[in-house]
Amino acid sequence: MSLDPDVLDRNDAVVRDPQRAALKIIDVDVHPSVKSIADLKPWIPKEHWEMLKTFGGGSRVPFGYPKAVPDAHRVDARPADGSVAGSDFDLLREQYLDPLNIEYAMLSPLRDTGQGLANPDLAISVCRATNEWLVDHWTARDKRLKASIVVPIEQPEEAAREIAHWGRHPDFAQVLLLTRTADPLGRRRYWPIYREAVRQGLPVAIHVFGAPGHPSTPAGWPSFYVEEMTSHAAACQAMVASLVIEGLFEEFPTLNVISLEGGFAWAAPLAWRMDRLYEKFRAEVPHLKLRPSEYLKRNLYFATQPIEEPPDPRHLLDSVKWLGADRLLFSSDYPHWDFDEPTRAITAAFGREAQAGILNGNARKVYRL
Amino acid sequence: MDDLMTRLGGIDCDVHIPVPTMARLSPFLPEVWQEIAVARGIYGFAETSLPQAAPIQARPDWRDAAGLPSPSIETLTRAVLDERGMAAAICHCLYPVQKLYDPHLAAAFATATNEFLAREVLDSDSRLRGSVLISPYDIPAAVAEIRRRAADSRFVQIIMLASAELPYGNPYYDRLWAAATEAGMPVALHIGNSGRYPPTASGWASYRLEDEVDQSLAFQGQLASLVSHGVFDRFPDLTIVLIGSGVTWLPAFAWRFSKFWHGTRVEVPWLKDSPIEIISRHVRLTTQPFDGPAQSIATADVLAHLDATEMLLYASAYPRWHFDGTDAFPQGFDEELKRRVSIDNPRATYGRIS
């Protein structure tokens, strides 16, 4: 589908496509944000709050990379009071939920969530506070909003307890991990997280970023934001390889894992690559009963944003076909600068059935909505 | 001038020469290093990351009686040239200098390895060409080594591992790229971890299979670095050859990179072209190990996603076990593409082969 430029209103980046009215969207990657960590104070034990203010929680990345735009936000998504994009419910509703015809939005906070804190007690406390805030500030206000359980990844037993705490709460739809961790995420030491997710019937979403202290590429530390953003896909490839090769999906055959913000065009080639190498290394991994690609097609889903844009758009359709449209879940990344608008990213050229699946049906199945 | 290409045919762009034992390498070290080796008990730096017994290390029919891939030159040339109708082979001896932490030791062993390659391998058969092994931890020494080998027309490229200490786009390496282009040599990056950083952004793999799958990730990091820093703008004649980790990961990487470049150009204003165009012009990849799909998907459709007719270079990866049977071309390569990747593209890439 080629869109008439007249249907684009670039002021609010919303497409007024009449065909879209029929498509209700499930968006699996939306980023609410605290205005500052003080928003979490009501739920943080007093002694931890004092500790946090006095000593900090410990971060392993001193400055990160200056973004392409301030705070990596869509410039029009900043609230009128100048605070952080994604921190204002009314703006989210007016700019995003209503005009984009959102049926459900999966909220994954990234800023000041506790997942990046080295101090174990503070990480646990701030993750818990973040989950309380997600309910209080967001899901309680709009039934379209579903939250991710934010967990202290590097303390898998505590993370499992957090999942158990929220698992039966109807407003939580998934568990949130980050791709860049101290060890590859398939390692057995992380399995308590997956075990509890399966027990609670929740998929595990793994979003790019995380700051474990390792360089963000095996070539060393990149110099530029563009390298950092590009390299997230490589971190996702390593994450998928680890989950599959460690035998996670043999241990938990019903576990669903969703890769967020890594794109997807690399997934089929990664599956081919793993299958070919598996033939030569089979004796090293007797715990695998299936070929790697079979786990990928059974247990893994890929969020579409930032959707790849090959010079020849037909190549993107090849990528969808090779991976399988049933593996794809639409994501917008609202309110970040590299936001994807649903029907501009997932056009009718995907085929009506695939388009409907990616924009809604696949997520409905994964999240049992 | 020996117009090898026209006269005979194709070029195998990835042939491994087994790393020599200390006894064989020692004569090519300066006397002081020979003494140091004895005094310090340096028994050689054999590759430790993957045992020779691993199936991928050598085809069963390319192993000797002891099960090792240590062919005579006659055995090697028969396998890669005679039996496969190739005219020439570009050899490299990946002595793991890049994994050493002493830059002086690394430079000395790199020089000795190149001398070994010239005397023990290239002298044995006029159809063999060599790769200049360098250590990236002492740039003046590496530049001197490139200039020394450039005097020998049989050395046609420089070879390094996929990871070092600083990503390759950093200005630290500019004198290296200057020396490479001055010598008319492409720079090959071969898979392999320098041991400085984990092979993934999340640490170390548990299994060798996982490690092998992850090998393309360092290539992705290096290409992002080389392009973002504008290395190919500063050195428009520089070619990077990626050896040993497939090709089908490249398109998705280039698409993502180019998309983000559109949104972040303010950060790298010196880039005048999209990364995908720069990569197509300056980057080449060898064909084995091929990481294409199973037969249900047409190889041609997959190769259409990258500029395969220009970017791919034929390789047997001898003695590694990446293909079965006698045809080292990946399944699905038609005759036209075979000619491109084995004759036209190597000829265009390796200016010193003529």
CATH C-level category of chain A: Alpha Beta
CATH superfamily of chain B: Metal-dependent hydrolases
Question: Number of folding domains of chain A?
Answer: 1
Amino-to-carboxy terminus distance of chain A: 28 Å
Shape of chain A: globular
Tell me the greatest interface: A-B, 68 and 72 residues
Low-confidence spans of chain B? 1-6
Structural class of chain A: alpha/beta
What would you say this structure looks like, in words?
The complex is a heterodimer of chains A (369) and B (354). By secondary structure, chain A is α/β, with parallel strands linked by helices. Chain A has one domain (23-366): Metal-dependent hydrolases (TIM Barrel), CATH 3.20.20. Helices cover 37% and strands 12% of the residues of chain A. In chain A, strand 4 (102-107), helix 3 and strand 5 form a beta-alpha-beta unit. In chain A, helix 3 packs parallel to helix 4 and helix 4 runs parallel beside helix 5 (191-200). The longest helix of chain A is centred in the middle third of the chain and has 21 residues, at 225-245. The two termini of chain A are 28 Å apart. The longest helix of chain B is centred in the N-terminal third of the chain and has 19 residues, at 103-121. An eight-stranded parallel sheet of chain B has the order 1-2-3-4-5-6-7-8. Chain B has 15 helices and eight strands. In chain B, strand 3 (128-133), helix 6 and strand 4 (155-161) form a beta-alpha-beta unit. In chain B, helix 6 (139-150) packs parallel to helix 7 (174-183). Mean pLDDT of chain B is 94; it is low at 1-6. Chain B has one domain (4-344): Metal-dependent hydrolases (TIM Barrel), CATH 3.20.20.140. Chain B is of the alpha/beta class and 354 residues long. The chains are: A alpha/beta (369), B alpha/beta (354). Chains A and B meet through helix 6, helix 8 and helix 10 of A and helix 8, helix 9 and helix 11 of B.
